[in-house]
Write a structure and sequence with these properties.
Mean pLDDT: 84
Order of helices and strands: EHEEEEHEEHHEHHEHEHHHH
Shape: globular
Strand order of the largest sheet: 1-5-4-3-2
Low-confidence stretches: 73-93, 324-333
CATH superfamily of the largest domain: Ribonuclease H-like superfamily/Ribonuclease H
Number of helices: 11
CATH class of the largest domain: Alpha Beta
CATH architecture of the largest domain: 2-Layer Sandwich
Strand content: 15-25%
Distance between the termini: 42 Å
Largest sheet: 5 strands, antiparallel
Radius of gyration: 21 Å
Helix content: 40-55%
Number of domains: 3
């Protein structure tokens, strides 16, 4: 049985409780639990100590599409206290971050609307001071899209050769996720691809740093000839590394640009994130039809099923699984 455990902050605990209470879970009685609930393939317990325990076959999917975007990442985005630049306090447990290395990060994985973007940045010692002057840090800590755009444009202008960006629009993303079987496999392939492309330009780079988004072997398995020859460091909160922070800004900048263009094409402002997005999806499906979601959204999200159901369509219409606890749907006429 798959198991995930993590100590949650008070805001994260509140978000988890709200999610469990509003999303149709069956309540459970568990000793010393603040709240406990289950649904087919998933059991969740939040203990009074703040410890979260999630178990079952559906843990990986729940972590990707509920916990990370709605409970964990949302808290990071809304932090009110100004945070210092990540460049000023490198992790002493890691190799010297001022050495030449490549950082990799992504944006959009947890957003229902818009693309997924993976970016990489090649950092050399002489660029480190310049990145610090630009204010480069994890893009989640920069609240203003205009500020992210300003930094990203300067990175692209002065160090374009050091930047590599790969965009998966919904029309590309949806069939690839279906073909590869999971988001993490696609993400691993994308990480390996941007890394390989930078290594073509900078073949003597000794190492790369990436955020750990899944099993460690996934990126390593996807690596090509050049990538297999360098040291690959995967760790949580890798954005504390300046090269990864630069990559996160490049990825977020491109995500915002692509989402803005999709909003223009659909004649509707598409919201970021994975919460409070259903009303927009329902409006567009009612106006244009369900196929619009394949062009503007990530259709494997549970939100797709919810939108289709709300609009009277079979929830399996776009490849989303038909809920086991619901009656069989008849074709809509």
């Amino acid at each position: 049985m798959n198991t995930f455990t993590q100590k949650l902050s008070p805001p994260e605990q509140n978000r988890l409780q709200k999610h469990l209470e509003q999303s149709g879970y069956e309540p459970r009685e568990v000793a010393y639990a603040k709240i406990a609930a289950k649904r087919p393939g998933l059991s969740i317990v939040l203990y009074e100590s703040g410890k979260l325990v999630a178990q079952g076959k559906g843990v990986e999917e729940w972590l990707e599409f509920i916990f990370e975007p709605e409970i964990h990442q949302a808290v990071l985005v809304k932090t009110e206290t100004p945070l210092p630049s990540v460049l000023t306090e490198p992790d002493p447990t890691e190799p010297d971050p001022s050495s030449s290395h490549i950082g990799i990060d992504e944006s959009g994985k947890g957003d229902f609307f818009g693309p997924m973007v993976v970016a990489a940045y090649h950092l050399t010692p002489d660029l480190r001071g310049w990145l610090s002057e630009l204010g480069v840090q994890d893009s989640k800590r920069i609240k203003s899209d205009s500020k992210i755009s300003e930094i990203a444009e300067k990175l692209l202008s002065k160090s374009e050769a050091h930047c590599e960006i790969l965009v998966f629009t919904p029309e590309k993303y949806n069939p690839l996720v279906k073909k590869m079987g999971s988001v993490n496999r696609l993400l691993a392939w994308a990480h390996a691809t941007v890394l390989e492309n930078l290594l073509i330009r900078f073949p003597d780079t000794p190492r790369a740093v990436a955020d750990q988004f899944g099993p460690e072997h996934q990126i390593k398995t996807a690596l090509k000839e050049r990538g297999k020859k360098i040291e690959l460091i995967q760790r949580h909160k890798a954005e504390s590394d300046p090269a990864v922070a630069a990559a996160s800004i490049l990825a977020r900048h491109r995500f915002v640009l692509e989402l803005t263009e999709l909003s223009r094409l659909s004649n509707c402002e598409l919201p970021k994130g994975a919460t409070h997005v259903r009303p927009t999806g329902e409006i567009l499906v009612k106006q244009v039809g369900p196929e619009i979601l394949t062009r503007i959204a990530k259709t494997h999200f549970r939100t797709t099923r919810q939108v289709l159901e709300a609009c009277g369509y079979n929830p399996a219409l776009l490849g989303t699984p038909d809920p086991k606890d619901r009656p069989k749907w008849k074709k809509r006429t």
